[in-house]
Protein 1
Amino acid sequence: MSISDKTRKALEKIGLTSYEIRTFSSLLKAGELTASDLSQKSGVPYSKIYEVLGTLEDKGWIGSDDSRPTKYFAKSPATGLETTKQKMENDFSQNQSVILNELVPLYEKSGTSERPDIWVLSGAINIAAKILEMVESCRNEVMIALPQAGEELVKQALPKLRSLHDKGVEITILTSDKMDKDSIKAISRVANVKIKKGLFGGGIISDKRYVVILLGPEMGGVNSDLVAIWADHAGLAGFARQYFEYLLKDSKKV
């Protein structure tokens, strides 16, 4: 059984080369193999196989024994992924420090001010339209805090949420304990739903970048006094996400 193109592309995106994928795939199918046998089965040139095996072992995807000749074996994909993830996070952290230490002083010295895209929205219809647009365009993760009066928005957004669920988007919804039970049941089929007593206000965070924060009264019909902020700003979205996760801590899972 060969690895699907979808999985192959996913492995490439996390840093595995074509030769590494072919080598790991061969070990998964055949079990323990010597470098010579691996070269034949995977199609990786013998002149490259030891280099490929070395990098795969460093990345945590394979192991080897003390026999002669040495035999190699595949580790659990979960182990390989976790090792790769930790290495990527460590590398990012180190590079982040280097970049910030040199570039932040240059940025501050230049006197340039950041110009994030921030809009003030008014009226329930306009705000609901923007939220539905964000849900529809989401690619990886969406987090929604929904007060009781947002039941109508749930009905409008449900088809879009189902579509996101089918695409593998991670959906988390925090809602009021006063929300209609049928509405909660409907969204729990496509999202991780948690209930918080006395939830006040609401908002949505999409792909850790786009955010809508409700500032005015609760959503209920057309209300010109309802105001919200929409922003395309990773910093603001990150702050909102931290607060969202704080609210989740003492919420009840459906």
Protein 2
Amino acid sequence: MKKKILFFEDLGKKEYEKTWKYQKRLFDDIIQKKVNKIFSKKAGYFLFVEHPHVYTIGKNGKKDKHLLVTSDFLKKINATYYQTDRGGDITYHGPGQLIGYPILNMDYFFTDIHKYLRLLEEVIIHFLWKNYEIKGERKKGQTGVWFHNKNGKSRKICAIGIRMSRWVTMHGFALNVNTDLRYFDHIIPCGIHNQEVTSLKKELKKNDISFQDVKRMVKKSFQEIFDVKFIPIQKKLDE
């Protein structure tokens, strides 16, 4: 059986709003083809990106309760804020954090949103264990990947928030690699009180983790879990 094809692009460092619009363009293109019953050999796209400091909140999030600082303070710390069309509550994106945006036509995979979320989690769990022998885990009733201590406390390393319409996905996961975790102090991450956030750098007790190595390994885990083949994207963000 042939592997499903995804167009892959590493956007490098890009502003959130510009990347969001690019995602939406790719997302709308897939939906339009589905509506018009145009067959496509590609199952979708997969983007990597690293954003400047930005806080984003899902369509049902509670800004007044979970964003703990003013707009003036955001300016002082060089951060922006966006209300988005994804699910989930508030989170932070910034330098040293790897963002993965799968824009998938789920007709090529399966039409089950819960299974999709569990497989996104599995990509990160697989990546952590295969490359670092760190056991990432799920948390009952929540979406994302955590580390659990014997005393019952947990530390979140990967947030996940998606949008799905007509069985096409956008948005995705945010993996803390070398992230400045102090930026999480200004929010209630994902709307969960008393939730500790961590990074790969912190867990491995290293000065810095090779971002390029992490990209390569997460990409490989995604290919294995979703059984896909990547080819270079032909469209460009700046076109």
Protein 3
Amino acid sequence: MAEFLEIHPQNPQPRLIQQAVAIIRNGGVIVYPTDASYALGAQIGDKQAMDTIRRIRRLDDNHNFTLLCNDLSQVSTFTKMGNDAHRLIKNLTPGPFTFLLDATREVPRRLQHPKKKTIGVRITDNRIARALLEELGEPLLTTTMILPGEDEAMADPYDIRQKLDRELDLIIDGGVIDYKPTTVIACIDNVIEIVRQGVGKAPMLET
């Protein structure tokens, strides 16, 4: 049975954030809100938690996992970020963007794309997620809360509870969040390009 915490979307209660982070550190798999959708999250180094996420979403080995980072300095620890990419990410975050970059050795190999050795990174504008990252002190391994066979993320934490209560350790209720896919931007080999146009607008890259 998953724990269910109602956390205030504008003023997250520190006690509840600490409770949530304790579950993450203990190997738990959580569902939490971002600025684009609900997402599954776990500690970076926890293989068992990652396997649970793979099972819930039925992900294959080619899935690009994402690290939810608190700031640019965390991004630069886990990715090889050139000057142009640094400038772009600084301009566009926090916000609904996912950036694909070459991973550094800090990223466990199992999280990297098997062929490209890349990792996705995000800096979200959601206050609950940012409070979690602040307390955790490291990025969160994450992927959108989309169930197998569905095109959109689940929007209502009560629906998530109904479907996944036995497979999760924690569901954070931050209100209903309608799915808005992030804009995915690849910053690899000195080439920067939009690979999926989502809700985030990057006018400097539009031709």
